[in-house]
Structure formats: structure tokens, C-alpha cells
Amino acid sequence: MKAGSAPPWTTSFIDLCLLLLGFFVMLHAHTGQQAQVVNGIKQALGGNNGTSAGESHDIDPSALFEPNEALLKPAARGRIMALGRHAAAMHARVTIESIGADRAVRRFDGWELAAARTAAIARAVQAGGLSDQAITISIPEMSGRVTGKGQRIAIGIMPR
């Protein structure tokens, strides 16, 4: 019995499937390092990774907020508004990413506190003069896990 030959496009299709499979295996292997994976993909595709052409600020929310609250301290609000003024003067985009969460407290659970703090920072950036269309907020999936590291907030300023 003789096997029939496959159409020529099947080799390309199989290559594409294997590349996609490898890509998703790589993504799954780096589940704890989402920021590095995203920045690497952006850089590979010719995008800005937030560090080469733009600015990146990694902030500990405990320095900005009242304990267990989403209320910015007055000095911190001024500092964040200054970032907004700086970005507006550069005609830049601002990305605000919440990474992790603090332990649950009486008023908020960990996820609510992380989201409220991220939104408070976005409002302060907007109060600095940047339009809301130039602000992107990202709160990655937390899967119900709260690490001992607490919440971190990354603010990126990227020229348009």
C-alpha cells in the first residue's frame, strides 16, 4: 500500500502549530514573571519595553498611602501629580501596573485595596494634567494568592 503525498501547505501549517505550541509552553513556564515576559515580547516585536526609551518607576505603596487605605498622603499626591505634569509636557503615555496585593484588611480585601490604590494613582496622574486617554491601568490576575511581598506599583512613562 502506497502512502499519498501531503499537500505542500501542510509543512508550513505544522511549523506554525509547533511554533505556537512552543510559545505557549514558554509563557506557561514563566507564569511568575509576567512583566519580564511582556517586556521581552514587546522588545522582540520592536515595541518599547518601558526602560529604554521611556521612564519606569517601581513604587512601594506603603510610602504613598495611609496604612490599609487607598488615600494618598499629601506629599505623595504631589509627587504623583508631578509625574503627570512631566508626562503631559512630554506628550507621553503613562501605564500604571499593580503587582501583587497586601493582606486583607478590615475595610478592603487584598484585591480591592490593590485596585483602589492603582485607581488613586491614576487620578493623581490625571490631576497633574494628563488626559485619561493617555493613562493605562493594569491589574494582572492575582488568582487569590497574596504573597508576603505585598503590593508593588510600576509606573511607566513612554513617549508617543
Walk me through what this model shows.
- It is a single chain.
- By secondary structure, the protein is of the alpha+beta class.
- Helix content is 42%, strand content 16%.
- It has helices spanning 9-29, 34-44, 74-90, 110-127; strands at 55-59, 92-99, 135-138, 152-159.
- It has a 4-stranded mixed beta sheet with strand order 1-4-2-3, with helices on one face.
- Strand 2, helix 4 (110-127) and strand 3 form a beta-alpha-beta unit.
- Helix 3 (74-90) crosses helix 4 (110-127).
- The longest helix has 21 residues, at 9-29.
- It is elongated and about 80 Å long.
What is the compact description of this entry?
The protein has 160 residues and is an alpha+beta fold.
Considering the chains and any ligands shown, give keywords for the structure.
60s Ribosomal Protein L30, Chain: A, 160 residues, single chain, 4 helices, alpha+beta
Can you tell me the overall shape?
elongated
Class by SSE composition: alpha+beta
N→C terminal distance: 63 Å
Spatial order of strands in the largest sheet:
1-4-2-3
The percent range for strand residues is 15-25%
What count of structural domains? Answer: 1
Q: How do the SSEs run, as a string of H and E?
A: HHEHEHEE
* CATH second-level architecture: 2-Layer Sandwich
**What's the CATH H-level superfamily name?**
OmpA-like domain
Radius of gyration: 21 Å
The CATH topology is given as 60s Ribosomal Protein L30, Chain: A
